[in-house]
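Two entries, shown back to back:
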Amino acid sequence: MKSLAELQAIKDRMKDKVVLREGTDGIRVVVGMATCGIAAGARPVLNAFVEGVNNGGLAGKVSVSQTGCIGICQYEPVVEVFESGKDKVTYVKMTAEKAQEVVEKHLKGGNVVTEYTIGAYDA
């Protein structure tokens, strides 16, 4: 980076991703990104949620962020979805493909994808 113009160009390219992580009053998606999550493939899952929210026009309604260890390493990658007035939903053993499905069915459609929740694995 050699100029303020280059810095501004980087800022403009990253704006959508930064806005997603700043938060909203709506739905909050949190991806576990501790060492265990990253080793299990959490980075592509995080990217899939960011892209899905961005491309789906949900940026004003849904925020995507990362956190450290959630505490259930055997189920990584783990994603928690928080909605005001509703119980937290914990998705486990996520992949980028499953994340895309969660964006469509849960974040857009309002229907929890129960087969990917921790309850489906505990049964």
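entry 2 starts here
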Amino acid sequence: MLPKHLRLTKNTAFRATYRVKNTHYCSGLALFVGVRKKDDSFTKVGFVVSKKTHKRAVKRNRLKRLMRESYRLLLKEGCVGNSNEYLSIIFVGHEKAIGKSFSEIYGIVKKLLEEI
């Protein structure tokens, strides 16, 4: 699980990140990137899977867990690319990503972070 100081929790922070409209998409996952940092604060990360993606909460929560764990492992390895230069990033799961395995999600998250 990600430490609390790395999580994006406030609705205003989510809206501010979406407002920047800097997005990357790959195989069922979208990455929204916020504004660049001016100081040495931490990059906050959010994970979203909407109810329109799948009606079952179990499926939505599993996809969020897979994305969260993939990011945590990449952060531990130091393979997050330029994502540390931004205030906030949001991973959004879509319908294409629902049935994928952990290794597939891990590869997609890694590719998205390299694209930034």
